[in-house]
Design goal:
alpha+beta, Alpha-Beta Plaits, two-stranded antiparallel ribbon, four-stranded antiparallel β-sheet, 25% helix, 97 residues
């Protein structure tokens, strides 16, 4: 199993929800307001007057075979509007209860 963490500008929320439904990924944890700074441009997402945009994040645990599909769709979402921002990170899940 793999854990996939996806951080994205809130403007992409509907696209992410559609992606999860399309890929039949039922289980996930959604973090609605996540602050941070992008790795490419370094532009902050802080929800402040100066940096008003906010990010959200989702983490899901999936079978290894789902990972390429998720990453492919995340890349497509990013290509729609690279300035908005979306990133995905994958790591192994050693155990689960």
């Amino acid at each position: 199993m793999k854990s996939v963490f996806i951080a994205f500008n809130q403007a992409n929320t509907e696209r992410i929800e559609y992606m999860l439904d399309y890929l039949k990924i039922n289980g996930f944890t959604f973090f609605e307001q996540v602050q941070g700074r992008g790795s490419k441009t370094g532009e902050p997402r802080r929800g402040t007057h100066t940096w008003p945009e906010m990010n959200s994040a989702i983490i899901t645990i999936v079978d290894d075979a789902k990972v390429p599909e998720i990453l492919s769709m995340v890349k497509k979402i990013d290509q729609i509007n690279e300035e908005v921002g979306i990133r995905a990170f994958v790591w192994n899940v050693e155990q689960a209860v």
